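User: I'm new to structure prediction. If I give you an amino acid sequence, what do you actually give back? Let's try with this one:
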Amino acid sequence: MIMEKENRKHKDSLFVDLFYQDETAKKNLLSLYNALHDTEYQDENVIRKVKTPDVLYKNFKNDISFEVDGQVLVLGEHQSTVNPNIPLRCLLYVGRAYEQLIDKKARYRTTLVKIPTPEFYTFYNGQKDQPLEQELKLSDAFINPVGNNSAELKVKVININSDKAHELLKKCDILREYSQFIDTVRAHSGEESAIKKAIRECIDRGILADYLKRKGSEVENMLIAEYSYEEDIQVKQQEAKQQGRQEGLILSGRIFQTVKSNPNLTDEQIAAEVGCEPEEVESTRKMFGI
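Assistant: Good question. You get back a string of structure tokens that encode the predicted 3D arrangement of the chain. For your 290 residues, that looks like this:
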């Protein structure tokens, strides 16, 4: 077990460690599954963790996948932001998962190959206000309207912030304590040694106490990595917006010059000349009053 951790090339989020890597992971997964489905499984052996080729951001992993009793394939991830592209990521991820579960030869048999029913969850605990639950659909990204033969994939986004008091937190102790721990870390944010203080406080309050006693320093490193990841995402989003604004200004300038030089051209002709959409020409005309 120790060697496996030492050989991992990626950084696990705290969520992934609790529900996939830690010695209590199967117990925690069973608790989570029972809470999601109102079942009462007791045998941890019904849980089979599914390993897929890593789909990572900068070697950072915050998703889990596991099979239950050979019938259900659960794919979940923890996010501090709700991204509309989550269903697309899940589509790519579930394909890799089935590649691990289904024998290659079986895919070409003439008899129907039975596969575990997939379920997709995102556990949100960011600081922006989000609904208690919401559903994201792959079809929202389709360019054309949904047809009879179109695929669909739905992701249930569950807000696990303590103040939202989702029913799932009452049913799953480990998820509730995870949420309380993150709340405690945030309460100490801005203070020196904030994570250490949060760890000590939660141990005193009995929140993830056994886990934090065993892995306090590892937890600190995982949270530092998580916050670095989130900050990097925010920086890249800001850079993308800034680049988009700059590119927009450059395009508007090219449209303006082309319109002024060719006042008799239509918006469609200007768009073809500049290499943009007619709507962008119309918008530029309104902006500059030309």
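You can read the tokens as a compact description of the fold. Here is one thing that stands out. The first strand starts at residue 11 and ends at 12.
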